Amino acid sequence: DAGITQSPRHKVTETGTPVTLRCHQTENHRYMYWYRQDPGHGLRLIHYSYGVKDTDKGEVSDGYSVSRSKTEDFLLTLESATSSQTSVYFCAIRRTGEVYNEQFFGPGTRLTVL
Amino acid sequence: KNEVEQSPQNLTAQEGEFITINCSYSVGISALHWLQQHPGGGIVSLFMLSSGKKKHGRLIATINIQEKHSSLHITASHPRDSAVYICAGGGGSQGNLIFGKGTKLSVKP
To answer: How far is Cα A86 from Cα A94, in angstroms, rounded to an integer?
Structure first.
């Protein structure tokens, strides 16, 4: 358990509304990631952060923005949700050091856009 | 382009059977991760390896760097092993992972 929580855990929203998902960690890890998981695609990277205010795009970043104003929180925002963004979203942290690149995942957020 | 390919996509086994899941990866991936996801559940890291073999209980992960291939073995399989097993390749300074599409394992009693 790497002390990662996600909120909300489930959300149903309508097309065109803004949505913000929160990832919170308790261990001060520098690297944080947002993924989406869809049938037939596996996990795909949306955005990641390598420090406070330092973020970069991943493979499927269109329609998403992120912010990291403090080490423990990484926010994912859908400015105007679309049905194609219905998915399960996972946040992850990376522990650096002896076991480099090993990532630990939050419990996930199931988002449905109607 | 870095890629990770898993096989089989789906696997059904009887309790007690020895199970093997395969993962092939492309150039540029320096470490291989195996993850487990139970139905409706979160994702748990099982192994991270860059050479040789690792063992944890009934799970064994091997990697052949020359052939760019890794396998996950489960000995004496049990219905509670039913899950999706995901391999992911890691490399690069930002630690980003490239994921396979997963292998759905169902172990029947």
So the answer is: 25
Find the distance separating the first CA and the last CA of chain B, reported in whole Å. 41
Q: Do B95 and A31 lie within an 8 Å CB cutoff?
A: yes
pLDDT digits (tens, 9 = 90+) for B25-78: 987 777 899 999 998 878 999 998 888 999 999 999 999 988 999 999 999 999
Contacts of A54 (CB under 8 A, 6+ apart): A68
Which candidate, B17, B20, B10, places its Cα nearest to that of B72?
Answer: B20
Say if A5 is an interface residue toward chain B (CB within 8 Å).
no
CA A30, CA A68: separation in Å to the nearest integer? 11
DSSP 3-state of B13: strand
Residue B1 has a pLDDT of 57
- Which residues partner with A55 through β-bridges? A49
| B109: its two tokens | 């009693």
Query: In chain B, which residues have their Cβ closer than 8 Å to the Cβ of A89?
Result: none
Exposed, middle or buried: residue A89 (CB in 10 Å: 0-12, 13-18, 19+)?
Answer: buried
Q: Could you check whether the bond before residue B39 is cis, i.e. omega within 30 degrees of 0?
A: no
Picking from A38, A34, A53, the residue whose alpha carbon sits closest to that of residue A105 is A34
